[in-house]
Structure formats: C-alpha cells, structure tokens
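Q: How do we represent a protein-ligand complex in a form that can be generated token by token?
A: Start from the inputs.
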Amino acid sequence: MIIMNIEKIKSDFPVFKNNPNLTYLDSASTSQRPLPVIEAMNEYYTSFNANVHRGVYKISEEATEKYEKAREKVRNFVCAKSDKEIIYTRGTTESINLVMHGYGEKFVNSGDKIVITIMEHHSNFVPWQQLAKRKNAKLVIIDINENGELKEDEIKTKIKGAKLVAVSHASNVLGTINNVSEICKIAKEEGAVSVIDGAQSVPHMKIDVQKFGCDFFAFSGHKMLGPTGIGGLYGREELLESMDPFLYGGDMISEVTVEKSEWNYLPYKFEAGTLPIAEAIGFGAAIDYLSKLGIENVYKHEKELTEYAISKLSEIKNLSMYGPKKADKKVGVITFNLNGIHSHDVATILSEYGLAIRTGHHCAMPLHDRLQIGATARASFYVYNSKEDVNKLVAGLKEANKIFKVG
Ligand code: 7TS
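Then emit the structure tokens for the protein with 7TS bound:
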C-alpha cells in the first residue's frame, strides 16, 4: 500500500514539469527541491535580504529571525536538546571535518585508536585516516559480512579501548542501516567519542540524537529536499564547549584585542563569517515540507519501493545486487551490476530513456576494493518516486541486456 500521493508530491517539484520524461533515481547524490524551498530562498533575496546578527534595522532583524527559526526546525527534526548544539555547515563533509579539526586535533594523541568501518563514504574515511597519520594514531576498520552488514563481533572487539568511533548511519552504496544506538552505547562504555554520518539517514527516517546517545551527528540539506551549501552538525554541548574553533573570523568571537581573542558562545563559536543565509532558510522550508509528509510515512513509502525493486530486479538473471536483500535492513538505495556490461554503459543506455542513476565508486573506494568490484550502478529513491519508476528501470535494464546481447 502506497501511503503518500506521489503524483501530488511530484507536482510540487518544478524540475519534473520542466523535464517531463525524467525518472530521477539519484537522490542519494542530491535530492530535487520542492517549490516551497525555492520560494523561501527567493523570498529572502527579494523581501528581506540583509546579513544576520548584525543590523538593528528591520530587514536584518527579519533575516535573523528566519535564519534562527530554521535552526530551531533542524534541532527539532533531529531531536537535539538545545539550539546551541546545532551548527550550520556546508554539509556532512564540512561537519565531519569540523569534528576532526575541533575535537580530533585537540584530543586525539599518539597511540590512540580511531575506529571506522569499511562502508564509509570518503567524507567519513579520509579525515580520520589523515588525522591518524598526523597523530600517529591507529586507524581500525570494522569489516562487513556477506550481507553487507557490519560484523557484530568486530563492533565489540574493535571498539574496545577506542578514543573515537566514526560510523555512517546508512551506507550510500549498500544502503545498510547500522545500529547506531548500539554502537554509540559500546563507544560510551569504552570512553570513546562517537561521530555519526547521517547523510543518508536524516532524509529518510526518524532521527533522535538523544536516543542514539551519539556525541556528534552530521548531515546535508541537499539530500533532504533542501538547498546545496547548507547542512548541520549536532554536537553535545559539553564537547562543543571543550573544542577549539574550526574557522576563525567574524561572528565567532566575543572579543578581540591585539593580544588575544575570545570565542563567541555556542553555536556561533563554530560559525565564522557570513553563512549561506538563503540556504539556511530554505533548509527550514525543506524540514517543514518533510514534516508535513511525516518522516515515518517517507520511511514506509521508501521501504515499500525498495522491497518492490529488490523483487523486480532479482528477476533479471545477470544482475548482481550488493548490500542487504531485505528492505527493512536498508534505506532506498540499490546498488547493482549487470554482469557483462560496464555500469557506465548501463547508465548511458538508461539515460536514453530519461532514467537518471549514478555509477562509479560513489566516493566509497575502500568498500569497492573490499567487494573486489571496480564500479557499480546505483538507483536511489525518495518521496517523488513510484513503482512506475522501478518498472521503467527494469525495462531499461532489459533493453541494455538486449543491446549488449547478454542476460
Ligand atoms: N556521507 C555519506 C554517507 C554520503 O552518502 C555523502 C554523499 C556524504 C557523506 C557527503 O555529503 P556532502 O553533502 O558533504 O557531499 N554521498 C553522495 C553519493 O552517494 N553520491 O553523491 C554524493
């Protein structure tokens, strides 16, 4: 049963009106944006365009109010305790780099253990690899099993004695949803700080950072119907207080003299310079849109689509699928190969039929090495996708097989 009216939802997205033939199956890269998000940004530029936290004049106050209101929406969406714990960033990548610089550089020492997993996106892999190199710390990697899930026994044994644990909530390749509550609990017992990459989970499921018990949680606006160039970092207040700033400049100070500087209170200590104001306001509008749909409904809809896609794609004989085969173990990401055809060729043929999928290593090279595959094709779903889109994908793949005379 489809819970949401997909045709109605789709009509909110101008991109589909302007591309009537488009079947967009690449939301894990970036989602499309509904009109209310675009309008919220336009309204800022056309009606109250001014810098925030500076002017005492009317439009600056209005801009500041909308910008801070959006922060409150973000806080509410991820269930953080206080607005002080929500830092605007450019997205997941910057959020994780902020933690690496602000926390890692200060508190990780020679010989410390940093634990990540083999399914990490480069954004949650390279910063820790580089920090470990600079600090002479140990980088320990949790492996996956044949279902594309983290090995249970390694979660326990490898986190033992760790200083920092950085894990994705959902994999952008396998789709696997990791049990972050369990991982954060073990990390806490070991006295380690936990960093969760929520880029692929926040758009699709209920997030409660307090229930998860994580110390940091990173996410991007553009994957959840919001604009590019804006995202968030949740950080536990006490930890954010203990950290050094990431960027220095305007707005992040309380006082500067020739001799020294003092930092602004949270969250502004980590928000140097003029941030993307229109985008922050658009981010708030995206959260309003998702909240109206109901994030639980979004999750159910995608689970149903994923289940349908797994069953339909399984009928194609030369198709290999990677990651869990059960829809309740994953987000709406299906990564596959048509044996005998390079994924780029598959995507090129699909494009002829208006289908947009992603191919390559999806910024997860260590995972592709682990699976011993070069490149893969990936279809990912969101609120505007329907079973009809899955049918088109299946038809396109059968066509590719025919053209290449395989399958
Ligand atoms: N973490 C995960 C799990 C991701 O999937 C991505 C982006 C990022 C971090 C980085 O997010 P950003 O907004 O800072 O760029 N993933 C993808 C993808 O799968 N295809 O394109 C981008």
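The longest strand covers residues 333-338. The longest helix spans residues 58-78.
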